[in-house]
Amino acid sequence: MKVAVTGGTGMIGRKLIASLLATPELIGCDGRKSEISSITAFDVIPPNPPLPEDARLNFIMGEISDADSIAALINDDTDAVFHLAAVVSAQAEEDFDLGMRVNLDGTRIVLERCRMLDHVPRVVYASSVAAFGGEMPGVINDAVTPNPQTTYGVTKVIGEYLIDDYSRKGFIDGRALRLPTIVVRPGRPNKAASTWASSILREPLAGHSAVCPVTEETKMWMLSPRRVVEAFRHAQALKPEAWGSHRVVNLPGITGSVAESLQALSRAGGNSARARVKFEHDAFIQDIVDGWANTFTTPRGDAMGFNADTNLDEIISVFLEDDLQNQHAYYD
Questions:
Q1: Among the options 125, 152, 166, 330, which is catalytic?
Q2: Tens digit of pLDDT for each residue in 179-200?
Q3: pLDDT for 114-161, tens place per residue?
Q4: Among 94, 85, 7, 87, which residue's Cα sits nearest to residue 288?
Q5: Residue 203: how many CB atoms within 10 A of its CB?
Q6: Which residues neighbour 19 within 8 Å (Cβ) at sequence distance 6 or greater?
Q7: What is the pTM of this model?
Q8: Cα 179 to chain centroid, rounded
Q9: What does the angle CA 297 – CA 298 – CA 300 come to, to the nearest 5 degrees?
Q10: Helix, strand or coil for residue 181?
Q11: What 3-state DSSP class applies to 230?
Q12: Packing angle between helix 195-205 and helix 258-274, nearest 10 degrees?
């Protein structure tokens, strides 16, 4: 079995690839478990730090919106595609054309390439809870209609509809996951409007200062990197019948405020870690984050077997166990 991972040098892509290399089995197009023979990571930038050295792992650098590059990535031997590549929230808001080219045009090109194959590949698509916005109920359930209020959210919802329709037509066997904010992300801050949610935990635990651009009352719907990798693998393994005609699911997560995150930081790293976080309000970031849903009930995701972290302490423990040791290299 051959697997393609777009956004393969990003945080989730790297962790997913590491998981696939460690446990090299997925469900093939025939519905049976198959051994992974090859994984191709695709991204617009070279991997830094390098990807693992493994004979099964290849890397292609290119633009997701370039059809020739995607043709080199996805071919008749490709059984599974994890489509993670995207321009993140604040960056897409600042550069509309870039957001549309990568998130919308790129997704369509990936799906069109899959449509051309002589079999029906399983495609797992990374969507977002940024699908929700505007006037919302206090708690989002599975019946709430998406109403994105950012360019990023709009492109993700369009991608969901494409996944549904390409699956309905029998071009792909698609699955779309609405991701919570992923915390704690290892590495350096990125251009996502939610990057601070990881920074205010990651940097202090690694002995560095961090800036929080939103108020202590600000809440987020969160999931750890470990759980999101589990979710991608679980989504790929589920039978088509488990999805039905609607190929989108809100992933389970937990709601936490900035104040609660800082309390958990103090429990994990002491008062000295908490003291490394300073507040510098950014109205642009606050407005984006305030437009996101932050409290969900996820009966469909629960019934399908997706899992959330127990609490913020568990989320921090995942970072301490999985990533803190390597985090120091990013500051050298």
A1: 152
A2: 999 999 998 888 788 999 999 9
A3: 999 999 999 999 999 999 999 999 999 999 999 999 999 999 999 999
A4: 94
A5: 22
A6: 229, 233
A7: 0.95
A8: 6
A9: 145
A10: strand
A11: helix
A12: 20
Written as six digits, the tokens of 308 are: 């959330």
Q: Who's near 117: CB < 8 A, 6+ residues apart?
A: 74, 75, 76, 78
Closest by Cα among 136, 166, 169 to 250: 136
In contact, 183 and 257? CB cutoff 8 Å: no
Q: Alpha-carbon distance 79 to 34, whole Å?
A: 10
**Are the C-beta atoms of 178 and 250 separated by less than 8 Å?**
yes
- What are the Cα distances from residue 293, in Å, to 20, 24, 103, 256, 286? 31, 35, 21, 12, 13
Closest CA to 80 of 125, 14, 47, 23: 125
Q: What are the backbone angles phi and psi of residue 127, rounded to the nearest 5°?
A: -100, -160
Give the SS3 label for residue 27. Answer: strand
Order of strands across the sheet with 254-257? 181-182, 219-223, 254-257
Is 331 tagged catalytic?
A: no
**Is CATH 3.40.225.10 what the domain over 2-180+222-250 is classified as, yes or no?**
no
pLDDT of 332 reads 66
Q: Quote the CA–CA distance of 9 and 15 in Å, as a whole number.
A: 9
Name the superfamily (CATH) of residues 195-220+254-294+310-331: UDP-galactose 4-epimerase, domain 1 (3.90.25.10)
Residue 134 DSSP label: S
Which residues are CB-neighbours of 108 under 8 A, at least 6 positions away? 162
Q: Are residues 221 and 129 in contact, defined by beta-carbon separation less than 8 angstroms?
A: yes
Q: Where are the domains positioned within the chain?
A: 2-180+222-250, 195-220+254-294+310-331
Measured at the CA of 201, the angle between CA 92 and CA 208, to 5 degrees, comes to 100
Q: Encoding tokens for residue 27? A: 């469900």
> Contact at 8 Å (CB) between 152 and 104?
no
